[in-house]
Specification:
With 267 residues, the protein is mostly helical. The protein has 9 helices and 2 strands. α3 packs parallel to α5. The protein is elongated and about 90 Å long.
């Protein structure tokens, strides 16, 4: 179809829609302005603001890392077009910053567009609340990992100590020595139990810290956002089938979640 024909069809539809909206009682005129005049101005303002901030940021970075030839590629064109479309539909400063960073990375080193498109689409889907929760999980990732590793190590140690305790009863030694040995083992078991309980409490407290003042971690709203993040493979359910954390429903940042956050970081 010729461009001229496309323009005619577009203008015809626009005229029809304007006519229909204008005839809506009471609010027709206001809706007409919102749908066409205000909407166009708003989108243009968002694009202008995004491009101005992009330009300001480019001025601040080392120009030697920019590969100007990337702009001439089909991959960059596709990424730029996709990001511009999303920018026109968002007012979130956090998301705009991430779109900027994705675009800047393409100026430095082009990535496969399928990968770039995935990160653009994820950024478009995430609300500021999603991002707040995601970053909260990122902050506790190391704590969760360290606690789980410590619990696993101490639980293996507990098994060894309990085996030593059973074997002590069948050893052919005098009663006083047996008593002393068992007291030493029992003390070690108690210390091991305390360390496990402390690590478990620390792990649980870390999970609790992902809630905000507005969202309690047990609220339906919080769970909605967490489930959204899980459906995008940014969070994962910790599969804990044994030990002191068994049966408890924990979430953590997935490997893909880590890759996404690293990708959209500031250059």
């Amino acid at each position: 179809m010729k461009e001229e024909t496309k323009d005619i069809i577009k203008n015809t539809y626009e005229s029809i829609y304007k006519s229909i909206i204008s005839n809506i009682p009471i609010v027709g005129t206001a809706l007409n302005e919102l749908a066409f005049d205000y909407s166009s101005r708003l989108k243009q303002e968002r694009l202008n603001n995004f491009l101005r901030k992009l330009m300001e940021y480019i001025y601040r970075i080392d120009e030697n890392i920019i590969n100007i030839d990337n702009i001439k590629t089909e991959e960059f064109h596709d990424a730029f077009e996709s990001i511009i479309q999303q920018v026109a539909r968002t007012k979130s400063e956090i998301k705009l910053e991430r779109f900027r960073n994705i675009l800047l990375k393409q100026l430095i080193a082009l990535d496969n567009y399928d990968i770039v498109e995935t990160y653009i689409n994820i950024t478009a889907k995430l609300s500021d609340r999603h991002l707040e929760i995601l970053h909260a999980f990122e902050k506790i990732t190391d704590v969760q990992t360290n606690c789980r590793e410590l619990i696993e190590i101490r639980e293996r140690r507990l098994e060894d100590l309990r085996r030593d305790l059973r074997e002590a009863d069948i050893m052919k030694i005098d009663e006083n020595t047996l008593k002393d040995n068992k007291e030493i083992i029992l003390t070690k078991i108690e210390n091991c139990e305390n360390e496990i309980n402390e690590a478990r409490e620390k792990y649980t407290n870390a999970q609790d810290s992902t809630e905000s003042e507005e969202l309690d971690e047990h609220s339906s709203e919080y769970l909605h956002f967490v489930k959204d993040l899980e459906s995008m493979y940014l969070l994962q359910t910790d599969n804990i089938n044994s030990g002191r954390l068994a049966g408890m429903n924990f979430y953590s940042l997935s490997e893909f979640g880590k890759k996404y956050l690293n990708y959209v970081r500031i250059v």
